[in-house]
Amino acid sequence: ANSLRSLSSATTSIPWHCHSAENDYMAMVRATLKVGVARSTSEVVDGASAVATAVLDSVRRPIAAINITGPASRFDKEAMHHTAGHLVEAVRGVEVRLGCAVTDTP
């Protein structure tokens, strides 16, 4: 629950649309790396929105990705924000099942 709260507060500052300016793009990349969730609205498929996060191995390298995609008319900013926390939680569960999860304790 605490990780969902911190994800929720962190995702409020993520840019939701990719801009053509390089500075805006790099800001979006940095925010995505910080939070661990990527978002897309009509960037790959016109009229589709998506959220995605990486499945990481035990040394935090990406080994796969899981995304959720829907029509932009229904999968709006609020729905994407709500879904992102659940997606991260589900992916962390996958990492545990694969034996890839890193624990916070020494």
Strand order of the largest sheet: 1-2-3
Provide the gyration radius in Å. Answer: 14 Å
Spell out the helices and strands N to C. HHEEEH
Total DSSP E strands: 3
Low-confidence stretches: 1-20
Biggest sheet overview: 3 strands, antiparallel
Number of helices: 3
Beta content comes to 15-25%
Structural class: alpha+beta
Shape: globular
Proportion of helical residues: 40-55%
Q: Give the N-to-C terminal Cα separation.
A: 22 Å
Kindly report the average pLDDT value: 77
Summarize the structure.
The protein has helices spanning 2-11, 22-35, 77-98; strands at residues 38-41, 48-56, 62-71. The chain is of the alpha+beta class and 106 residues long.
Task: Please give a structural write-up.
By secondary structure, this protein is α+β, with helices and mostly antiparallel strands. It is 43% helix and 22% strand. The protein contains three helices and three strands. The chain has helices at residues 2-11, 22-35, 77-98, and strands at residues 38-41, 48-56, 62-71. Strands 1-2-3 form a three-stranded antiparallel beta sheet, with helices on one face. A hairpin with a 6-residue loop joins strand 1 and strand 2 (48-56). It starts with a helix and ends in an 8-residue tail after the last helix.
